[in-house]
Structures are given as C-alpha cells and as structure tokens.
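Morning!

This is the sequence you dropped in the shared folder:
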Amino acid sequence: MVRSLFEHACVVWHPSTTQLVRLEKVQKKGIKWILNEQDHHYNNVEYIHRLRDLKILPIADRFIYSDLILFHKIFYCTSIIKMPNYIEPVTDDDINRLRNSHLDQLSLKCTILPHVTAFSQSYFFRCFAIWNRINISIRSLQNSDEFCSALLDYLWTTLLDNINQENDLLLADCWSDDDAVLEIGVT
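The structure's back. Tokens below.
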C-alpha cells in the first residue's frame, strides 16, 4: 500500500539525492522490520543481498526502473506521450566520433545544453542519458514485458557488480593495511 502511493507519478516527482538517502533509510528500517532484524546493523553488501532476496530494488534504482519503463514506451511509441523535439536519435557522424564511441543506432542525444538545474534534472534529460548506458540488447526489446524483465536483471547485475567491486576495494585496502602493520613489525 505504501509503495503504491509512494510510486504514484514517480516519473514526475523525482527526489533529490538527499531525499533518496532519507527514503533509503526508511526502506532499510522496513526491511529490518520485515525480516525481524531490527537490532542488526547491515553493511551495504548485506543490505543489498537482503533486498535481492525480497525482490525489492533500492529506492534510487526503483526510480530509474520506473523512469525507464515509461521512457521505453515513449521511445517505441506505445505511449500517448511523445518524445520532445530536443531529444533525437544520434547520427552516423555522432556514432563515428571517437569520444562518443559508446553510441549506437538506438542512442539518443539532447540538442539543448542544460543551463538550469531544473532542466538537467527533468524527466527526459535524465532518462535519455540512462537509456544510452543500457546495453543495446535490452534497449532493442520492443515488447514491454520482455524489456521490464531484462531491465530488472540489468539493474540487479549492475548493482551487485558495483557492490562486489566496492567490497573488493575494501578488502584490498584492509590487506594493504595489514601489510603495512607487518612491515612495521618486521623492522
């Protein structure tokens, strides 16, 4: 019930980073309550794995998921909402430029530079950039259900990869601290 009210019109209402952090804290408390682990402190890895087990995306990723579902419908013209004129497909010249080599035939570009924060955080501007970062095999799925499923898998894979990389960096840092202690002890 809370989530349905919270996510109503979420593509229009998009919280700031500070608001996302606060909302994530509320979700974390809810997860602890659901799992009866109110006294347990989660590190990032534990928290993400608990969310994965419950099939609940972190708040920021949930907003991205909702944004991209609508954007997919707009892109493939299955929505009454149309893509604005300032968002357009990239050209062959754009694709061939060295610095834009990540672009492909389903990539988009914005013809207006964001001079105002409100515009840079607007729905279409934030979505086209995220859209371009998604693998083309996912963006090319025209069926909405297939896209939703593949997008969800992509978000979880990306999230878990980032958490594992973060965890590896922490472990490497711990090892280097241990090595420094050993070196000091040896001399």
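Headline: The CA atoms of residues 68 and 127 lie 7 Å apart.

More detail when I'm at my desk.
O.
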